């Protein structure tokens, strides 16, 4: 026991809820706002028009991210709660069947039948619903859905990500906005990929390449569309 206390563990999976929302929000903020700025600038618009379009994209995107995350994660939470309510009812009406079910989960994982039934009995005597939620449904405190956390995290990180290409519009000469914002945004995306990989313990090069590739593709497409319509106009 003293050795266990001397070796505390901090698992990265505990970050999965807010980290997913944060990376998604920041990535969308950079990509969508930079793409919008590049498209409008490529159409021949001046700095004021580009700034207005970028600010509108920031506000609309942040609100959209918050609403989308809240709705989607709330749906996940509703499903979890429905499953827990069903499990609670089954524990109340057919506890022996639930004991059998839990024991067979452990048997399927390689535990001997005798020990599996002992484990099931001990866990159910302490917290039957918690044992079934964790081992039968895969619901735990770490992975449970948190709609408000996801919504606020995504909205905040989207706004931060979107502010970066907007800052470039203020700092760069109008003549090089398309190239300058594109290059700066790719650097921001590479940094985001590296930070996200570091926080999640993922492969640094793969994460960085992934976000920069899709960001570059999005900006190239919108620049092409902006240039096409700018010429037509």
From TrEMBL:
Coiled-coil annotated residue ranges, if any: none
Membrane-related topology note: Multi-pass membrane protein
Matches recorded under CDD domains: Nodulin-21_like_1 (cd02432)
Subcellular locations according to the entry: Endomembrane system
Protein origin, superkingdom: Bacteria
Transmembrane segment boundaries: 21-44, 50-71, 150-170, 176-199, 211-232
Keywords, in A-Z order: Membrane, Transmembrane, Transmembrane helix
Main location: membrane
Keyword Methyltransferase: no
One protein family per Pfam: VIT1
PANTHER family listed in its UniProt record: FE(2+)/MN(2+) TRANSPORTER PCL1 (PTHR31851)
Protein name according to UniProt: VIT family protein
Source species of the chain: Halodurantibacterium flavum
Classification lineage: Bacteria, Pseudomonadati, Pseudomonadota, Alphaproteobacteria, Rhodobacterales
């Amino acid at each position: 026991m003293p050795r266990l206390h001397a070796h505390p563990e901090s698992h990265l999976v505990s970050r999965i809820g807010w980290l997913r929302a944060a990376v998604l929000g920041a990535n969308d903020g950079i990509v969508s706002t930079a793409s919008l700025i590049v498209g409008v600038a490529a159409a021949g618009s001046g700095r004021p028009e580009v700034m207005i379009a970028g600010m509108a994209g920031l506000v609309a995107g942040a609100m959209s991210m918050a609403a989308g995350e809240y709705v989607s994660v709330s749906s996940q939470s509703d499903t979890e709660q429905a499953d827990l309510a069903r499990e609670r009812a089954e524990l109340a009406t057919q506890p022996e069947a639930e004991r059998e079910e839990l024991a067979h989960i452990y048997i399927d994982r390689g535990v001997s039948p005798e020990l599996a039934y002992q484990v099931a009995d001990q866990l159910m005597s302490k917290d039957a619903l918690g044992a079934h939620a964790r081992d039968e449904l895969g619901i735990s405190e770490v992975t449970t859905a948190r709609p408000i956390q996801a919504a606020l995290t995504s909205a905040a990180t989207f706004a931060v990500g979107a502010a970066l290409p907007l800052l470039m519009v203020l700092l760069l000469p109008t003549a090089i906005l398309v190239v300058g914002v594109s290059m700066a945004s790719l650097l921001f995306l590479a940094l985001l990929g590296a930070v996200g990989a570091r926080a999640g313990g993922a492969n640094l090069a793969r994460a960085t390449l992934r976000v920069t590739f899709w960001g570059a593709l999005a900006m190239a497409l919108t620049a092409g569309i902006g240039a096409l319509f700018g010429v037509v106009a």
